[in-house]
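re: ur question from earlier - yeah i can do the single chain one, its not a big deal. heres the input i used so u can compare w yours
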Amino acid sequence: MAGKATQDGLSQDERDAVKQRAKELRAQAKAGKSREAGTKQVLEAIAQLEGTDKVLAEGLHKVVSETAPDLVPKTFYGFPAYANEAGKVVVFIQPASKFKTRFATINFDDPATLDDGDMWPIGFAVIAWSPAVEKRVTELVKAAVD
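and the output i got, formated as tokens:
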């Protein structure tokens, strides 16, 4: 994560992310596991993105909505994310602009069942949404929820 560390060891970007997460948790506690509230939060988060980040987040939202409709949209540190019935994040996108990195990442958390032997990838750098990327993300999301 980019940025100069503050006295507590966190960069300003990291401090902002922690504050964003606390705000999300309060909002989610009020809304419960409401799909409508979560979808609204995710669509608002996507609307705030620009350029490639927005295209990638829209692509992931479309894939998850079509491939894993049981996942509930929610935000996770301000990122568009999708959680299982227990409220645990399965997949999320970290936009490049959030921490000023050169690529966005699509990440899978512990509930994702991507297990493949003793070692497997859970994060994927993405610089453009293409038919090949959409196909691969669709395969990953399907595997993550099986």
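Strands lie at 72-76, 79-83, 89-94, 104-108, 123-126. not sure if urs matches, ping me
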